[in-house]
Amino acid sequence: MTYVVLENCIKCKYTDCVEVCPVDCFHEGPNFLVIDPDECIDCTLCEPECPAEAIVPEDDIPEGQEAFTELNAELSRSWPVITTRKDPLPDAEEWDGKPDKLQYLER
Q1: Of 37, 55, 79, 90, which sits most exposed with the smallest number of CB within 10 A?
Q2: Residue 36: how many CA atoms within 13 Å on its side-chain side?
Q3: For the CA atoms of 74, 107, 16, 66, what is the dihedral angle to 10 degrees?
Protein backbone atom coordinates (compact mmCIF):
# COMPACT_ATOMS: atom_id res chain seq x y z
CA MET A 1 0.00 0.00 0.00
CA THR A 2 1.11 3.55 -0.64
CA TYR A 3 0.06 6.93 0.60
CA VAL A 4 -1.58 9.46 -1.74
CA VAL A 5 -1.60 13.26 -1.74
CA LEU A 6 -5.14 14.52 -2.32
CA GLU A 7 -6.74 17.61 -3.78
CA ASN A 8 -6.49 19.76 -0.65
CA CYS A 9 -2.72 20.07 -1.19
CA ILE A 10 -3.30 22.03 -4.40
CA LYS A 11 -2.50 25.73 -3.92
CA CYS A 12 -1.33 25.06 -0.34
CA LYS A 13 1.75 22.86 -0.77
CA TYR A 14 2.76 22.53 2.84
CA THR A 15 6.03 20.61 2.93
CA ASP A 16 6.17 19.45 6.55
CA CYS A 17 5.72 15.89 5.25
CA VAL A 18 8.87 15.75 3.14
CA GLU A 19 11.31 16.05 6.03
CA VAL A 20 10.01 12.96 7.80
CA CYS A 21 10.02 10.72 4.72
CA PRO A 22 12.80 8.14 5.07
CA VAL A 23 12.84 7.23 1.36
CA ASP A 24 12.44 10.60 -0.38
CA CYS A 25 9.25 9.65 -2.20
CA PHE A 26 7.81 13.19 -2.41
CA HIS A 27 7.97 15.12 -5.66
CA GLU A 28 7.28 18.83 -6.06
CA GLY A 29 5.29 20.64 -8.69
CA PRO A 30 4.48 24.34 -8.92
CA ASN A 31 1.53 24.21 -6.51
CA PHE A 32 1.16 20.57 -5.42
CA LEU A 33 3.15 17.68 -3.98
CA VAL A 34 2.82 14.02 -4.97
CA ILE A 35 4.04 10.71 -3.58
CA ASP A 36 5.82 8.21 -5.83
CA PRO A 37 3.93 4.95 -5.21
CA ASP A 38 6.96 2.89 -6.23
CA GLU A 39 9.14 4.56 -3.57
CA CYS A 40 6.62 4.85 -0.71
CA ILE A 41 7.23 2.23 1.97
CA ASP A 42 3.99 2.86 3.86
CA CYS A 43 5.83 4.09 6.94
CA THR A 44 2.89 6.35 7.99
CA LEU A 45 5.20 9.22 9.05
CA CYS A 46 3.96 11.78 6.53
CA GLU A 47 0.23 11.60 7.17
CA PRO A 48 0.17 13.25 10.62
CA GLU A 49 2.64 15.94 9.50
CA CYS A 50 0.32 17.40 6.84
CA PRO A 51 -1.42 20.53 8.19
CA ALA A 52 -3.96 20.33 5.36
CA GLU A 53 -4.77 16.67 6.06
CA ALA A 54 -4.16 15.98 2.38
CA ILE A 55 -2.28 12.67 2.74
CA VAL A 56 -4.09 9.36 3.19
CA PRO A 57 -3.41 5.65 2.69
CA GLU A 58 -4.61 4.55 -0.74
CA ASP A 59 -7.19 2.29 0.92
CA ASP A 60 -8.77 5.32 2.64
CA ILE A 61 -9.16 7.69 -0.30
CA PRO A 62 -12.44 9.61 0.07
CA GLU A 63 -15.13 9.25 -2.53
CA GLY A 64 -14.49 11.56 -5.47
CA GLN A 65 -10.71 11.66 -4.90
CA GLU A 66 -9.86 8.28 -6.47
CA ALA A 67 -8.17 9.87 -9.50
CA PHE A 68 -5.41 11.18 -7.24
CA THR A 69 -3.86 7.72 -7.01
CA GLU A 70 -2.99 7.77 -10.70
CA LEU A 71 -2.23 11.50 -10.65
CA ASN A 72 0.41 10.97 -7.93
CA ALA A 73 1.97 8.14 -9.94
CA GLU A 74 1.95 10.12 -13.19
CA LEU A 75 3.36 13.38 -11.83
CA SER A 76 6.00 11.70 -9.67
CA ARG A 77 7.62 10.44 -12.89
CA SER A 78 8.29 13.97 -14.15
CA TRP A 79 8.52 16.23 -11.09
CA PRO A 80 11.75 16.51 -9.04
CA VAL A 81 12.19 14.95 -5.61
CA ILE A 82 11.82 17.30 -2.65
CA THR A 83 13.49 16.46 0.68
CA THR A 84 13.66 19.77 2.50
CA ARG A 85 10.82 21.74 4.05
CA LYS A 86 9.94 25.01 2.34
CA ASP A 87 7.46 27.73 3.18
CA PRO A 88 3.93 26.99 2.00
CA LEU A 89 2.48 29.00 -0.85
CA PRO A 90 1.72 32.60 0.21
CA ASP A 91 -2.06 32.16 0.23
CA ALA A 92 -2.08 28.56 1.51
CA GLU A 93 -4.29 29.34 4.50
CA GLU A 94 -6.95 30.85 2.23
CA TRP A 95 -6.99 27.73 0.01
CA ASP A 96 -6.88 25.11 2.75
CA GLY A 97 -10.20 23.27 2.79
CA LYS A 98 -11.65 24.80 -0.37
CA PRO A 99 -13.34 22.26 -2.67
CA ASP A 100 -12.84 21.66 -6.38
CA LYS A 101 -9.18 22.69 -6.57
CA LEU A 102 -8.13 20.18 -9.25
CA GLN A 103 -8.83 22.82 -11.90
CA TYR A 104 -6.00 24.91 -10.40
CA LEU A 105 -3.34 22.21 -10.55
CA GLU A 106 -0.26 23.50 -12.35
CA ARG A 107 1.81 20.92 -14.15
Answers
A1: 90
A2: 19
A3: -50
Q: How many helices (H) and strands (E) does the chain have?
A: 2, 4
Residue ranges of alpha helices (H) inside the chain are: 67-76, 92-95
Q: What is the DSSP letter of 81?
A: B
What global pTM score does this model have?
0.97
What distance, in Å, lies between the first and last C-alpha atoms of the chain? 25
Question: What is the per-residue pLDDT across 48-89, written as a single tens digit (0 to 9) for each?
Answer: 999 999 999 999 999 999 999 999 999 999 999 999 999 999
Residue 90 carries which DSSP code? Answer: T
Cα 30 from Cα 44, distance rounded (Å): 25
Strand ranges inside 6-102, DSSP E: 26-28, 33-35, 55-57
